[in-house]
Amino acid sequence: MRSLGARGTANVLIVGCDRAQMGAIRETLGADAVLPTASIAYEQALTDARRGRPNVVLVGFDEDFEEAVRVGADLTQALPAATLVALSKGSEPDQIRAAMRSGYREFVVLPDDGELLRHAVHEAVYSNADEDEERGEVIAICSSKGGAGATSLAINLAAELCPVHRVLVADLNFSMGDVASFLDLRPARSIEDVLQDLDRLDERVLAGSVAVHPSKVHVLAQPNEIDEHEEVRGDQILRLLQIAAASYQYCLIDCGVALDEATLTTITVSDLIFLVTNPDVPAVKNAWRRLQLFERIGIEKDRIRLIVNRWDKRSQLSNADIEKNLGLRVAARVENDWKTLAQAVNEGRLVRDVSKRSPAARDYSAMVALVTDHEEFIEIDDKKERGGALNWLFN
Fold first, then answer.
1. Taking the model in full, what pTM does it have?
2. How far apart are CA 99 and CA 71, in angstroms?
3. How far is residue 175's CA from residue 187's CA, in Å, rounded to a whole number?
């Protein structure tokens, strides 16, 4: 059982924070938490946490970034029920991603994010013990190149999940996002509106910001018009994804082809990553580049599902070519039923609504197992495999 002070207050452990941060923490939390008189050193964190069983552990990231990451990983394993919060004086993207990988639930910049810290502490006290089991899954869908088919995959896979689950598709392409147009939707609010109201974002506000397709797919879309906007920070996207995962069983995030802070943060914290490529040399080469980046930022390969879109028997490259050169098994493929796909896009309809007999519709339906059962691949019958066609590109 978690240790509590007064009823409704959290027991907090503070690690690696200086006097200024301690003052900001006290001013922010007030009577909402039982606070220690001083911060402890990183090396004391595990011992003191095991003894005190805190609800919340606040860890400073400015004094020693590497030690803060190590402490997070140790505490996540030793006290999985505790809420870990990273504290910093700035929102450095690399720090945010490292914090999420090592188990921190929030990344807070004080005093700017005071409300976020209060919310994290409140949730630590009042949330159910099985909160993590109730949290929805986040699936990042990324393209190896423009036009590879990530948006079509996101919306058609979401529609296959919807009869049984609550599903959100969020469009993270801030320059040319077209999830809404693919579904012939005209949403009143956009993802930019949500990010501007981030301080008051909760499940109710998110529900009022989505457009609902007749298939029951909920869509958080980009604005209808292209506007100049400030680059979205990783901590903003992290907050959005946390609320989305609390509201939906599955959140499919259309990351498009961009590798900006929004998409890199999404990839870092996602439960699964669908990397969409086409069976041609430029697409596979770019998929290889993305896999190299994923490895550099610490993405585990077992979270990645390689999807070959627009496949047909006359494809330039076979599954064997792609797997050999990417070092990753093809998890699923979508047949190149280009006439049906083109009609679906032009009319703003789902592929299955254009033609229930479409092989692409069949493949989207089969892909549900990758999400719901965490299958690593769908068995594919491909007898004419060729090997080594891309060796010169990757050596």
1. 0.77
2. 10
3. 17
Whether residue 145 is found in the same domain as residue 98: no
CATH, residue 86: 3.40.50.2300
Nearest to 83, CA basis, from 137, 122, 31? 122
Tokens for 322, please give them.
């792609």
Give the separation between CA 361 and CA 100, rounded to whole angstroms.
35
Q: φ, ψ for residue 203 (rounded to 5)?
A: -60, -35
Q: What is the dihedral of CA 247, 252, 256, 258, to 10 degrees?
A: 50
Which domain-ending residue is among 66, 101, 131? 131
Residue pLDDT, tens place only, 180-219: 999 999 999 999 999 988 888 889 999 999 999 999 999 9
**What does 22-48 look like in DSSP terms, one character per residue?**
HHHHHHHHGGGEE--SSPBPGGGHHHH
Residue-wise pLDDT for 136-188, tens only, equals 999 999 999 988 999 999 999 999 999 999 999 999 988 788 999 999 999 99
**Structure-token pair, residue 240:** 């959005």
| Measured distance CA(233)–CA(164) in Å, rounded | 33
